Amino acid sequence: MAGRNHLQLREIPLSRVAPLSRSTTGPRHLHTRPHRHLLEDRISTQHREIQSLLLDNHRHAATRCIKTRSLSVTARPLRHLSTLAAGVKAERDNQIREVYQRSLKLDAELRSIDAMRSELVQVRTDVQKITLQRQDMTAQLKDMNSEIVKAKRETQQVGVIKEEIETVQQEIQGGRSAIEYEKKTWAFNLEQEKVLDKNRILLVREIEKLRTELANAEKRARAAAASGNPSPGYGRNYGSAEVRYGGSSYPDPNGLHHVRIGGVILLLHFHLEQCLMATMTLHIDEFLSP
């Protein structure tokens, strides 16, 4: 313990100090000798101071060790007293806890007894209420038995009323079905009218196109005839000769063209009517099919 935290006394030998150079030859080293003496004096003074500091440190360490020992000796009874006080305090705490727990148990028992008393009072009041309700229910039961007898008498007429209700329901269902059928037929007729109107419009447009084509064809035929008969007198005599001899044996190409266009128009009308009839029959079949 005495050797801790302090430095041992050691003297610094002067041999460790860097020796001064003894070469004094030359004019440069003549003026450095007093400086070396000064350095040696300073080093010796510092060495003395260090030795004194080491002695002081050693003394302080010894006094510190003595004080720590005395403190450890005086701390032992204090520790013993603190342990005894802690034990006494723990015993007292245990006693206090036991007393507190007993008091809590007693409070809980008292509260349970009070609750049981209140429940007993509530049970008595409930029993009285139940007895009153029982009397009321017996009276109501008598009234209900009398009403049941009346209802049994009235239930004998329920069969007739049920039959009347069923007939009325059947009539209502028939009326609803008729109304639904009328709605469907009206909607179907409306759709068919719309389709027919569209087809009529298309047919009128096609007829107008064919008429314009026929008019253009007639114009072209007339122009071709006019270009083929340059002399009107010759044409008249030639035509009168054909009439005289019963007509020409060659057919007129313009007349054939008109006949063909008319046939095409009739065929178109026929096909359009067939398409309309087919669509109408198809819609009717779809409507009538379940």
TrEMBL record:
Biological processes per GO annotation: cell differentiation; flower development
Coiled coil residues, start to end: 127-171, 200-227
Record keyword Coiled coil present: yes
InterPro entries documented for this protein: FLX/FLX-like (IPR040353)
Keywords, in A-Z order: Coiled coil, Developmental protein, Differentiation, Flowering
Family: Belongs to the FLX family.
Record protein name field: Protein FLC EXPRESSOR-like isoform X1
Species annotation: Populus euphratica
Gene name linked to the record: LOC105110168
